[in-house]
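Figure 2 data, in text form.
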Amino acid sequence: MDAQVWETLRLSLGAFLTSSGAGGVAAVVAAYWAYRGVQSRLAGDRQIAAEAALSEAAASRVADARQRWWEMALWIWNARQYLDPVETVVAVEALKRLVQTQEQSAMLEVLSRAIEPDQPKVEG
């Protein structure tokens, strides 16, 4: 290219860069990047919310399981003198497999000692 073409290109580019058209193009580019940033942030927020919901559901399931354990332990405790000896031991063994906390383990020990003198041991 000759010098005149370069000069024309330089002047045209300079005129464009100082015109309102360049400002419009810059505004469109900035708006696009802002849109992409917002979309990325929203996707991240959705993922965090989904993980929190899963975590909350898992915590709820654990709490429900613990509550059922305590209800079963209390039922066995209250009904221990009326239950068949083998059924009582089987129920205590089932509780033993479901222990999740130290408190449950302690309660199971108390329950086992309370029924132990009267009940046979069931292996299995």
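Caption note: The chain is about 80% helix and 0% strand.
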